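Incident log entry.

Two folding requests arrived from the same account within the same minute. Monitoring flagged them as a possible duplicate submission, but the sequences differ. Recording both here for audit purposes.

Request one:
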Amino acid sequence: MKLYTYYRSQASFRVRIALNLKNIAREDSYLHLEKGDQFAAEYRAVNPQMVVPTLLDGDVKLFQSLAILEYLNEKHPEPPLLPADREARAWVRGIALINAADSHPLIVPRVRHYLLDELQLGQDKMMGWIRHWLDAGLAAMEALLGEHKESGQFCHGERPTIAVIALVTQVTPAKTFDADLASYPRVMRIYDHCMAIRAFADAHPAKQPDAE
């Protein structure tokens, strides 16, 4: 498999975690999103949306991180990233979407550059925007974990799921942007537990060869 990635991309981080959990080898191709590598014609031909990650599995081209995670889970079912029962699967997907569909898309580089360059929002207001949406997602996760009887060391059950992958990739940018995490003890307990697991730790942005 070939993964087009950027060390700070939280969507790429999600896919790296899943590949590590399933012990799937890959070749990485690094794009520097802040320098605009994703807009080059060569990569636009790979992914017309000009975002990362993109995963190539032979002749199969995959895009959007949660779709990639579900593909990997179906092709390589062990260890499973989704629970066996329908209700639990829906809950796990819901937690994952808080990060992948609601919070993360609002803080990616192309949004930040639009706020700064086009809307002239200014650095302080832009940072406030980022922290607001990260906090909104973290607060929702914290409340939902408190209601969920199957949460403990992970979001659900005794093994990693796509929910905990998304939780980790919600906390990581919150740390990068100096958000106050004291209000999210359940979230942080799970985050700390996961980051002690090699599959998560090795996927961390700071551990990537293109990290700056």
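Request two (distinct sequence, not a duplicate):
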Amino acid sequence: MTGRDTVEISVKGKWSQVPALRVNGNAILVRGRWIKVAIIDAEEWLPNELANPEECLQRLRQRDTHGLRADIFTFSQKLPATRPKYSYPMEWDSVAAIHVTSFRDWWEKLPQEGRKNVRRSQKRGVVVKVRKLDEDLVADIVDVNNDSPLRQRRRFAHYGKTCEEVRKDQSSFLDRSDFICAYLGSELIGFVKLVHRGEIASILQFLPKASRADARPGNALIAKAVELCEAKGISYLTYGKYRYGNQGTASLMEFKARTGFEEVLVPTYYIPLTLKGRIAMRLKLHRDLVEMFPQIARRLGVKIRAGWYKLSVLARRCSSMAEQPKL
């Protein structure tokens, strides 16, 4: 069944309604300004991959799409399907994945530093629990969000959010999600939101407290996620991309490698729908332009952005102190 609709999406921590085209239960969104790319809404969190891409293509090529026009349509295959199924134009997408056979097998393959950090978290009193979302957990997540206004050297979109906003953020895919929580005493020092997708479990949010990094909550959380996957008979644990564009070694990539994630390449298809789309694909303009920059330019950009964010945070703190009444 097809039709025009709207869906609510979160972009940089803010929710908004956007137009969508419904095709057999999938919501197709269009993003981009000059080059408009049609995507499957929340594709990376759906239990199944797109079953009938040709029907989506036919619908997008029709003129009665109520203004929802696109130049390119893209979709990806889902693990463990790493061999291309279709003859459409294709590129390889980098996925960070752990093939879960058993916790013991994962543990034995870990680098020595990875095992050492898991043991260190245990020695320092970190206790990991699997929880469902309730009011107490929402309040704890608010505290984790407010640990630092910056994450990965960029402004953290969830810093300063209210309990109501956090509850809304964390309610997506709630019927097939687990919250893996790391505690030091009664303090939540990090959590993982794990979304179950059939034989895959995907990390939607991974948020250890930077101020408690010495307790290694991140390593403890990944270890528990692997243990949970084995208990539920899940074959793969995924955590976003392993490599972003032509990115060289980065701190997040190093963490993934130390905790047993490996790069798995899956087919992602890009099908031009218009002449503009065909030209854009020839010129590689359908990709994220930032990812196409040389590594040295990207590193410089990251440093400049991080410095700007730090100055912005410092300026806001100084302004807040100046506005406080003198006693």
